[in-house]
Each structure stands twice: as structure tokens, then as C-alpha cells.
Amino acid sequence: MEHIQTLIIGAGAAGYTAAIYASRANLHPVLYAGSQLGGQLVTTSDVENYPGFPQGVTGPEMMEAFRRQAERFGTDIRFGMITDVDFSERPYRLVVDGEKTITADTVIIATGASAKWLGLPSEARLNGSGVSACAVCDGFFYRGLDVAIVGAGDTACEEALYLSKLCRTVHMLVRKDSMRASQIMQTRVKNTPNIIIHWNTRTEEILGEREVTGVRTRNALTDEVEEIAVQGFFVAIGHHPNSSPFSKYIATDKQGYILTVPGSTRTNLEGVFAAGDVQDKHFRQAITAAGTGAMAALEAERYLVTRETPAPVTL
Asked: Which of 105, 137, 146, 157 is catalytic?
């Protein structure tokens, strides 16, 4: 059975940054990439808000640079999914692809969170070409244009308000005759002149061949079909953290986000750390994911060097 000193799970900004720091600290990290090298960023066409790229960079290019940097310092990057774990005793046991069992002294979970989508073929086809699940990431590209956003919670309201500062018109598509968002967020949206709320509205199709040109909707009460001309389409119906293999042992909130000690990446288990979107439901940015990846590697190094047992954690 293979034993690993520092195991990193996930190959996004958090996982790669943890790998860079862990490699430079001679922690001999092995990184299992899961199903997608680069995480969600490989589906992002342009990144303009990550420091160090004054002309911008595509998501795949940035993640490729992260990967090369991690490999330069000696990270062993492997394809494979962690499908099961046994964190009941140390060293921790993990199963790769349902077959191979490995053990690890420290584990950094950086598996991210996946956006929830509507499930439309056109949504998948135009993802990165006008369709986005992150207004903060991509809203800047639609300044002065018309956009649509689907959702009815606080996140959807926050993103609609963000887009309203950049875009000419924001069409907010709400499936019912009410929102789930807090009253204060609803009031702000309703009082923003360039946000048009379409109640009882279901998205039937995103229009456009190579880029978004509009959205076709249907009213649930009148059955009326409408085509709205927009150049961007944002989905804000939530995310789900990729934490299910660990939830039997690792403390999570009701949504499944891994709980960490404030100001730290420590979980409720000694030697297990969480970084990136799997533990961050508020920001979900590449820069914050990278920051927590660095924190996790530094904390893993400290744990391996001192072997001190921290005070019991209740999360």
C-alpha cells in the first residue's frame, strides 16, 4: 500500500497553490486531480481580475501555468478521483477510483464547488461564450450591454445588483411570484431602475450559435413565450460543494461546505485541511482559493514538523 506524506485532492487554484507551497517545503506532495485538471477555471474564457496578468489571461492558460509551476518544484500530479475515505484512524486511508487504497499523514481537501445549472443543451454549448455562473468574474465583459440572470436567492440578488452597475439592463428571471432572498435584498433589487424582474418565468432556451444573443422564456401563468435580446446570461441558482466523500468524518454546514476554524484551514480532524470553494461559499474567487491553498500547505507543514496535537475542535 502506497503511503503519502502530503496528499492534495483537487487541481484548481487552491490545490495547485497548496502543491507549490508544499513542494517548496519538501513535503513531497501527491496531487490527485479528479476529473478535471484546472477545476472550474478551465471553463472560463477570460480572467482579468487575477493579479499579475495585466492583459488578462484565459482560464485554461492560467491553470496550465499553475500546473507547470507545481510540477517544477516536484509535485506528483495524478489523474484519479478520491471515491472513499476512512478517517477513523491515522494514517488516513483513501480509495482512488474505487480500486487503489493509499494512506496519508496529512490531507488537503481542495475539491471545489460545482455550479448548479439549468440543464439546457444551449447552456452547456454557450458556457464561456456568454453563459456564466459568476457575475463577479465575468460581469465586466458585459459593461454597457443587456444581460439576463436566473435565480431568486440572496446570491442572485447580489449578482443582479453587481451587474446593474456595469450593464445597461439586467433581466432577472424568477420562476415563481416571489423570491427566497431576504427582504432587504429584494427591496434593493426592486428599487434599482435598470433591473427588470420577470416573475413566474421559466427559461426555455438560450439563443445564439457562437455567442449569446438572447433568451427564450415562458410565463408559467399565461403560457406566453417571449424572446429577450441579451448578450450575457448568468445562472445564480446556487453551488454544491464537492465534499460528499468526506462528509462522514469532516464537519460541514447544512449545504455541505466544509467547516474550518476561523482564520485557518483546519477542519475538525487533526492533519486534515480544507481550501478553496469547498469551504468558501461567500467569495468563490480564484484569488481567495489560492490564498487558502497557501494557508493549508503552511498549516500542513507546521503539523508535520511539530506533530503537535491541537486543542479539540468543535465546528
From this structure: 137
Q: How far is CA 27 from the centre of its chain?
A: 26
Q: Grid coordinates in use for 255?
A: 449545504
What are 115's strand-pairing partners?
Answer: 239
In the chain, ranges of CATH 3.50.50.60 domains: 2-114+239-306, 117-235
The yes-or-no answer on residue 167 being catalytic is: no
pTM of the model: 0.82
The residue length of the chain stands at 315
Out of 105, 138, 146, 280, the active site residue is 138
Report the alpha-carbon distance of residue 157 to residue 160 in Å, rounded: 5
Confidence of residue 306 (pLDDT cuts 50, 70, 90): confident
For 81-90, how does the pLDDT look when each residue is reduced to its tens digit (9 = 90+)? 999 999 999 9
Residue 134 annotated to the active site:
yes
Catalytic choice (46, 76, 84, 134) = 134
List pLDDT tens digits, range 50-107: 999 999 998 889 999 999 999 999 999 999 999 999 999 999 999 999 999 999 999 9
- CATH architecture designation of domain 2-114+239-306: 3-Layer(bba) Sandwich (3.50)
Q: For domain 117-235, is the CATH number 3.50.50.60?
A: yes
311 has which bridge partners? Answer: none
